Amino acid sequence: MNILCSEGFLHFFNAMQIETVSLDDILNLTPDALNNIADEFHLGKFEIKIEFSGPIRDLKDYNITRILYESNDGHEHFAHTRCIKNQEKGNIYYVVFPVKGYNYTVDDKTKLDFIIKYINLIITRSITNELLNRRQFTDYMTQLPNTAYFMKFSNDLGIRGILNKYTLIFSNLKGFNYINQQMGSQAGDSVLKEYSKKLKNFYSSDEIIARFGGDNFVALLKNERVEEYINYISNINISIVNDNKTKTLSISARSGIYPLPALSGNVGEAINRANASLIYAKKIADSDCEWFTDSILERINKDREVVSGFRTALIHKEFLVYYQPKVNVITKKIAGCEALVRWKHNGKILPPGMFVPILEEEGLICDLDFFVLEKVCEDIRNWLRNGITPPRISVNFSKHHLKNQDLINDVISILTKYRINPDYLEIELTESATSDDFKAMTQFVDDLNDHGIRTSIDDFGTGYSSLSLIKDLHVNVIKIDKSFVDNIATEDSKDKIILGSILTMITGLGMNVIAEGCETVEQARILKEMNCNMIQGYLFDKPLPQDEYTEKLASAYIYPIDI
Questions:
Q1: Which domains does the chain have, with CATH numbers?
Q2: Which positions ≥6 away from 107 have C-beta within 8 Å?
């Protein structure tokens, strides 16, 4: 074994000690290392073959065959071979040919095995390290870079001072939730995998597209390539197998775009701004693509302020309940009302449009609905205590309530707390397009009916299932959306014809009707002629604070409008 302590072996050993995690680096330096012991080991040719199998996709990237050393003097055709099994379900084959005119002895092969095992140790360590690094920086499902690698890649560009040559695009898939609901989560996963393959085909080595969880993808692309990318993701066709059938889906994406400023080191802030633009595109602008502006950030920050301040506002009872009368056009008296919410915030009264859609989006609206219901019950109890009998009050309930398995009991508990007869209340629901929501709504309406609480459908005619809704849902009142009332007084109005048919159909089914948004005497007269006798709108009253509404109730107020 003296040869193992030779000067050539020491050079070989030192050459293989370079700190690296790259297999390519190891394979590139090994030929020079082997050259140090070529004469002592009579090397003619040294080959390696790495072969991995199994389901782990990134291991197959290491399947290679390479000649690590070859003598100019040629080699014999018989070889010394070794196969070393790898714990990652792979084999590494080493094939060593002696130099021309030499045959390996048993002692030579023993020494070669030592060299082979040493090289194998270095190679398997480099593969393991590289796999660990790759898995640390790779999204397991899609094999795209993950958030960690995106940040590393971006920071490296920042260190090089070239971030201003790039634009950040934050995207997510349109209709992905529908795919998950209708086709199942497995189909959703298949969509993400196939979609990611398409994204891999787009970006170059000096760019990156990473998955940020769910159906969110963030790209960092050269400025001149942004328009090309937006066009590319506007319609990507992918094929997946679902229910043993191959289906082709057209996938499009919404995006928020933020060009990176010169020398920007805060990539996290850039991601937030691109995401803010995406939120704006989705919730406000209803567009597929929005470039960042300061006004977008201001709008998003206001939305966040609403969300962050909501719980405190509930505790401090900053929300106020206003009452908008429903008027009987025959008697011109208040025949009911709708409870509507306002927010007294920083000394200002905020209309519902400034906070209700945000709370709806964030899933906080249910707490506000129950706050309103409880305040209405409290007011009813006070009116009755003071000898005022209020007409029925409708309270709006979001479709988010339908996920609450104990919803009916939660409603009844509030009525019980204030000792309120159910006849004083009406729960107002909005049409829903999904079948699951419709089933839950049907059950909730039936439960309310069982407890003597009337129900109504708001904004009728704006949903996708209006006709089946009035056929299958056992509600008491249908509220006609304002859009049907706006133009009924214009000459040759088609809305007037449509509205007349709707009213005939609804009343024929034994339901009551209320027309929303009536603003002119002429509209009211036409509605009266159509036998729609219950009207809600600014012609009579805007939503009133509790004290003003109480005054009108106490005086049995009659509206001085000639209809």
A1: 2-136 (3.30.450), 147-292 (3.30.70.270), 319-554 (3.20.20.450)
A2: none
